[in-house]
Design brief:
Layout (H helix, E strand, L loop, with lengths): L13 E3 L5 E3 L2 H21 L1 H7 L4 H10 L2 E4 L10 H6 L25 E8 L5 E9 L2 H4 L2 E5 L1 H10 L9 H7 L5 E6 L3 E6 L8 E5 L3 E4 H6 L2 H13 L3 H8 L9 H9 E6 L3 E6 L7 E2 L5 E6 L4 E6 L10 E2 L8 H12 L12 H27 L2 H17 L6 H14 L3 H18 L5 H24 L9
Parallel strand pairs: 6-10, 13-16
Antiparallel strand pairs: 1-2, 3-4, 4-5, 5-6, 7-8, 9-15, 10-12, 11-12, 14-15
Helix pairs in contact: 1-11, 13-14, 14-15, 15-16, 16-17
């Protein structure tokens, strides 16, 4: 496992990026700032209308050229049986059959439930590629849950290449969820509206919930498309979902404001990474019911390959206890956390940590600062080749995380130590932690078996290295010819 995903599971509304940078997305602020910008532009245009009238004839040709650059919305024509090529997929994706093409046709193709609707500039940019964002909807995704993607055709093709839109066998947790056997229930929580509460004892490191997105919207689309076009596209994305999923979205809490769509997304979305690290905003209707705590007992992991979010317990959660995640980076101070939550979610946090004494809060913030410092130091030591120092600091980080009750997912931690020991030339300890990682991934039961398979292959490679080393040390290796 790469060290940039080491030790630190991401929390609600943010994602761990390269070098442990937190990739945050403030949907409320994005919507509000665009609305203010539009209002300001409207006033400026009113004041300048007389000047524009006088210059209208002089600017006629320039306006015509500019018009070609403006955002345009169009419906892709229905056609099927045509082989996909790079130019067609970026201009107007095939609505019925967009998938992986082989010699026998579209064996892995996805049949969209609606013709994709696209918006963008048909004029090519400097790289020769037109900017285009499209709405793709599949009402049959995951046994009728449905999904709408508002993103580029390139990202959609990437997901198809991964097989992310296929219905695959799920883990035991997912199978239990399909049968209605859940470890949690959604109930009314005093002072919070709806919340998620454990129905039984949930063990540390156990998958509490598996959720799949109803909608995924690229931030490129959110940032470049004019507000009224954006709202129309997102509303259509919701309307093209099955009725059951639509109802779940509209029942979610929303911020007060002029536009319902803005309010729902601003309060209930999560940021995830797709493709080559492009941020997308996901609407996970089940996980959106999980409330915030500055001392959370759960966090989420997102699998791009399976298009699934797994909510995992930091530590044991007793029956009747509320399941909570952090909406803000845990390394922020109490004042900064409360300010951020008030400005972006509109509530004053009264969680256990925020109600604690000044001494308890100070101790907690001190431990979290040290955790952040150690994260940075582990990466630096690895980069500079001080692998044993990196191991020592990773072990110290684990100690502080246990004290703060924010431990890592242990198979990920063992994968990290495996890598560091291997880089340090310590095959014995690398193999020891590799076995612990493999055992941990097998017990974890993720919907995505990629990490389990990586761990298995890594352990096989370590075994071969160990055999080769023993062969050389016993004198059985290749000899120089004199």
């Amino acid at each position: 496992m790469a060290l940039d995903t080491l030790l630190f599971p991401s929390g609600h509304y943010y994602h761990i990026g390269p070098d442990f940078e937190l990739l945050t997305i403030n949907i409320n602020q994005l919507f509000i700032s665009q609305r203010k910008a539009a209002d300001m532009m409207h006033r400026i245009l009113l004041l300048a209308v007389s000047l524009l009238f006088c210059l209208s004839f002089a600017l006629k040709d320039a306006a015509a050229r500019s018009h070609a650059q403006q955002q345009k919305s169009w419906q892709c024509p229905r056609r099927s049986g045509t082989r996909i090529d790079e130019s067609s997929i970026r201009t107007c994706p095939l609505p019925g059959q967009l998938g992986i093409v082989d010699e026998e046709g579209y064996s892995d193709a996805v049949s969209w439930s609606f013709s994709p609707r696209c918006i963008g500039d048909r004029v090519k940019n400097e790289s020769g590629v037109p900017w285009i964002e499209c709405l793709f909807s599949d009402s049959n995704f995951r046994n009728g849950h449905g999904i709408s993607l508002v993103t580029s055709p390139t990202i959609t093709s990437h997901l198809l290449g991964l097989g992310a839109l296929e219905d695959r066998p799920h883990s035991a947790v997912a199978q239990e969820a399909a049968k209605g056997i859940l470890s949690y229930e959604i109930v009314n929580v005093k002072g919070k509206g709806k919340g998620v509460v454990a129905k039984r004892l949930i063990r540390r490191g156990e998958i509490v919930m598996i959720d799949i997105p109803a909608i995924l919207v690229g931030t490129g689309f959110l940032g470049q498309v004019r507000p009224h076009h954006r709202r129309r596209m997102v509303k259509q994305a919701i309307n093209q979902l099955p009725e059951r999923t639509r109802n779940k979205i509209y029942k979610l809490s929303s911020a007060t404001g002029e536009y319902l769509i803005d309010g729902i997304f601003g309060q209930n979305s999560n940021s995830v990474l797709l493709g080559d690290g492009q941020i997308h905003i996901g609407m996970f209707t089940e996980a959106a019911r999980i409330n915030h705590s500055c001392r959370p007992n759960a966090y989420f992991r997102f699998s791009e390959r399976m298009l699934a979010m797994e909510v995992v317990a930091y530590h044991n959660i007793e029956a009747g206890e509320e399941i909570e995640m952090s909406y803000v980076p845990i390394t922020e101070t109490r004042e900064d956390r409360r300010k951020y939550l008030k400005e972006n979610w509109g509530f004053d946090c009264t969680c256990e940590l925020c109600r604690a004494t000044d001494l308890e809060i100070g101790d907690s913030e001190s431990r979290r600062r040290r955790m952040k410092e150690l994260k940075e130091s582990v990466l630096y030591a690895r980069k500079e080749g001080f692998f044993q120092d990196a191991v020592n600091m990773a072990e110290e980080w684990l100690m502080f995380s246990e004290w703060e009750r924010l431990p890592p997912l242990m198979p990920e931690y063992y994968d990290t130590l495996t890598e560091l020991y291997l880089l340090n030339g310590d095959i014995f300890n690398a193999t020891r932690y590799g076995r612990m990682a493999l055992d941990g991934w097998a017990k974890f039961g993720s919907v995505d078996d990629e990490f389990l398979e990586r761990s298995r292959i890594g352990l096989l490679n370590l075994s071969e290295r160990s055999k080769t080393r023993r062969l050389y040390s016993s004198g059985g290796g290749p000899r120089e010819k004199f």
